[in-house]
Structures are given as structure tokens and as C-alpha cells.
């Protein structure tokens, strides 16, 4: 089993194509999940002081990753016309071709998970969590674990997509305000 397959295998969750193809890949429940359940803990591939720091350093830092982790990283979303994440098997030649500096920066741009004043991280599994204005999970940084932790905030049915709010610090914004923030 390669690194990508190991990353997709979990007893409770899986990454798969969303029924709404505009969303790309998402994280789904493989079984019923109860409110309050810790769904996963993931240490970051990269941690930075800011998104600008990530964009400035990602090309160099990517080159330092082991090959298996490079393959995981280049499978992350890089923009609305990106098809790489849904290619089943990436070989060395394809991996090399899609790991251009521009694409690496696009991956960092779209996958940095920012905390209010605490920096940002890039992680494989967390990067597949899609947004909902009414999310069923909460993602947060746990200093003691030096990792991101995902908990269910309500019961989640088997087959249901696991979603978070990309604006977790702004839960009281109205729809127009949320949409304006998401456009940035």
C-alpha cells in the first residue's frame, strides 16, 4: 500500500469525489459518528508564521519532503481547473511534471489553514475538508499534540460529508459577510 492509499484508509473516514462535482474531493463518514467524537488528529506537513511565509517558502520546503509526502502534497487542490487530485495513480514522471513552482504556490494558497494570529499549517487530510456555513465538525489547533484535531459537533450519518466552516472565527457573520470573506 502506497502513502496515498494509507492516507485514505481510516476506519471511520475516507476521501472521495463529492457528488457535487464542483466541490472536487471531500471527507466522508464510513460509519455513523456521534456528536463530540474526535474524528482525527493530524500533524502538519508544513507550519508557517503566515500564509505569505508559506507562499514564499513552499518551493524550497517541498523539495525537502520525502518522495511519498511530495506525492501526497501534489495531490492537494490547486485551483478550480485542477485535475491532479482525482488522478488515481501518480508516477514519478507525472509527479515531477505537476510539481512546478507556480502549482506548489497555488496548492499553498488554497490549502493553508490559518489560525487567528497563530500562523498557518498545510496538511493532507485536513485540506480535503470542504466548507459549510452549517458545519458538522470543528477543526482546531491543539498545542499539546502539536496537531490539528477534528471533532464532530453533531451526529453524522454514514455517507455524509464531513464539513467545517472556513470562517470558524467569524460564526456571527451573515451570509453576505461570509461570502465576501470567502472570496478573499
List keywords for this structure.
2 domains; globular; 10 strands; four-stranded mixed sheet; alpha+beta; 184 residues; Beta-clip-like; 30% helix; disordered N terminus; 6 helices; three-stranded antiparallel sheet
Radius of gyration: 16 Å
Q: Uncertain regions: pLDDT < 50 for 5+ in a row? A: 1-6
Please report the first level of CATH classification, the CATH class of the largest domain: Mainly Beta
Mean pLDDT: 81
In N-to-C order, the SSE pattern is: HEEEEHHHHEEEEEEH
Strand order of the largest sheet: 1-2-10-7
Q: How many E strands?
A: 10
SSE blueprint:
Elements lengths: L2 H6 L4 E5 L7 E5 L8 E5 L3 E3 L2 H14 L2 H8 L17 H7 L2 H11 L1 E3 L3 E4 L7 E2 L5 E6 L4 E6 L8 E4 L10 H9 L1
Helix pairs in contact: 2-5
How would you sum up this structure in a few lines?
The chain is an alpha+beta fold.
